Amino acid sequence: MLISANDMPMKANYMTAEEAVKLIESGDHVYIQGSTSVPEVLVAALADRGNELRDVTLYSAFAVTKGPAPYCKPEYKESFLVDSFFVSNSVRQWIAEGYGTMTPRFLGEVPALFRDGTCRVDVALINCSMPDENGYVSFGVSADLATAAVECADRVIAQINPHMPFSYGDPVIHISKLSAAVEVDEPLVEVPTAVPTEKEIKIGNFIAEKIPDGATLQIGVGGIPNAVIRALENHKHLGLHTEAMTDGVLPLLEKGIIDNSQKKVMPGKSIASLALGSRRLYDYMDYNKDIIFKDVAWTNNPFIIAQNPKVMSINSCLEIDLTGQVCADSIGTKIFSSVGGQHDFVYGSSQSEGGLSFLAMLSTTNKGQNKIKPVLTQGAGVVTTRFQTNYVVTENGIVDLRGKNLAERAKLMISVAAPEFREELERAAAERFGYSFLRLK
Length: 441
Hints:
Blueprint: H1 17-20, E1 29-32, H2 40-47, E2 56-60, E3 80-84, H3 92-96, E4 101-102, H4 110-115, E5 123-128, E6 136-138, H5 146-152, E7 155-160, E8 168-169, E9 172-174, E10 180-183, H6 198-208, E11 216-219, H7 223-230, E12 239-240, E13 244-245, H8 250-254, E14 270-272, E15 274-275, H9 279-285, E16 291-293, H10 296-299, H11 302-305, E17 311-316, E18 319-321, E19 326-327, E20 330-331, E21 334-335, H12 342-351, E22 356-360, E23 372-373, E24 391-394, E25 397-400, H13 406-415, H14 419-433, H15 435-438
Parallel strand pairs: 1-2, 1-5, 2-3, 3-4, 5-7, 7-10, 8-16, 11-12, 11-17, 13-15, 14-16, 17-22, 18-23, 22-24
Antiparallel strand pairs: 6-9, 18-19, 20-21, 24-25
Helix pairs in contact: 6-7, 13-14
């Protein structure tokens, strides 16, 4: 017999954070929600139990927190093992020092690890909205891995937080299904909107010129994506199907430039898996039925992405070699972040009718070091292979590697490198590719 929402018990199992984390036992595998919704009150209470617990595995992913994770302390090294699917600011140094680790996986494939038991989830710690009239709460800005973790966990412990927006789609659970609920009044972390530099504006303009009306956008985070967005204000009928929603898209949504009218997958709706931005973004999301948040296994599925026409995948990277190999997750052997959805959207856009992918970066680091390399730095991870790279964009221009041989790619990559490094790259390309490169001069 089907039970309606009105027939479900409305009572929540409220308790203090200290009482709630007593549900966690030694040996448990605990998922901690990410994005800007880390349940920091619960996390602090869990860390305070560090002297009582042993061998608790803590799964984390993309997250922006107020500071270092409180469980990342040498005295807790036997208590908590950090196993991250995306190395974020709160655990980056801890992992770099060798106390924690990371599990390589495309972000869209992590939910399957939970669902098939490869990565066991005993407890999910989440941050939720206030309940609606039917007793449902939303874990708001982070559906990504939280959807699968909540589905698979034996125990779900939630902060009930008036600052969390209620988002529609997958991140919704009835309050009676929570093992423990803790009332908190904790503003979400706000991520300032990155103001594009002059060089980033050049990159944004190069990309925007290639984007047609009616395109479906996947846009990352930072100055370059925001520069692209600013350059799209004269476009029409854009769609949004992305992993991360930021403040950058708000002007396009508010002006109706993003109207999702030409999408094939959930037309009329903006789709994301997580959000990070300002209070303005969170307020815009709250009870907004035109925005749907979905499990990252769905948003990042290349075969779903490809059903939309003219998918424009726009991502950043750390360095690229002369053949088009892209590193976006590490600086040499040091893991800096992870793959996220870059690979999924690069592939999905390649299968979309009229789709294009753009890998964008400044040509040098803040210290003036070259980011277009003869070969990738030793230990650097290849996130997007040379077989998949389409457009590469720097402040010096935009080049299309699709269908180009290795020598042709090298010549194109050198053309968008910083001028002071081009002679060095020319010599490296001539040595590596020989006459096939020299004949192109």
